[in-house]
Design goal:
five-stranded antiparallel sheet, 9 strands, alpha+beta, globular, 4 helices
């Protein structure tokens, strides 16, 4: 029986008896000492990898969001699949100490995401030289704003990550769970250059700050 792993939480995490996961499979807890793994099982793992892969990924992340509402989690990437429960338990036993330490470290923290985009990075130019000039200017505006953004939010930040996207950047802020309202207020009151579009989302599990394997 194939096992799909969504996330790991502490053993006192609430049950998910009525939660449905990818492909309509029930979400169940698999417990080991102080840890609880949230999983689904299926005789055919291809049911989770159906052609509508985007739908499956959305269903997967919905489960993460539901569990995360009440407890800290270590989220896994979709799809993290084991051939059977024995294989899953072996992984949990091997990494139990590490997982417990991560859950303790991030127990009161959440991840906020900020997407900063500039429409000019999506507009094709007539020549290579013109394109490079437009892109250079647009990128400079984004980088300047990103630096100002990080400075403005610095009082709340436990950590910060950012990476480039096709039309801007994606920034990830690690903050305390009880500071989400303050974060949104500070961001809302920040002046935004007219060339930019800024969209924030969260709180999310702290996936950008841990890499479970």
């Amino acid at each position: 029986m194939a096992i799909l792993l969504y996330c790991i939480a502490k053993g006192d995490a609430p049950a998910t008896d009525s939660l449905t996961g990818v492909a309509g499979d029930s979400v169940v807890r698999v417990e080991l000492e102080s840890l609880a793994a949230f999983t689904s099982s299926n005789t055919d793992k291809s049911n989770w990898l159906r052609p509508q892969l985007q739908t499956s990924a959305l269903e997967f992340h919905r489960v993460l969001s539901e569990v995360f509402k009440s407890t800290a989690i270590i989220p896994f990437r979709f799809p993290t699949v084991f051939d059977n429960e024995e294989q899953l338990m072996q992984r949990l036993q091997e990494r139990a100490t590490e997982y417990a330490a991560l859950l303790e470290k991030f127990r009161e923290l959440v991840q906020m995401e900020i997407r900063v985009t500039n429409a000019k990075l999506r507009v094709p130019s007539e020549s290579g030289t013109q394109y490079l000039k437009v892109r250079q200017t647009a990128t400079a505006i984004i980088e300047k704003f990103a630096a100002e953004l990080r400075a403005t939010l610095s009082a709340l930040l436990q950590d910060w990550r950012q990476r480039s996207s096709k039309d801007g950047i994606r920034a990830f802020a690690l903050i305390n769970r009880n500071q989400v309202v303050d974060f949104r207020t500070m961001l809302r009151n920040m002046p935004i250059p007219r060339e930019l579009s800024v969209r924030a989302s969260g709180p999310w599990p702290v996936g950008e700050f841990i890499e479970p394997s």
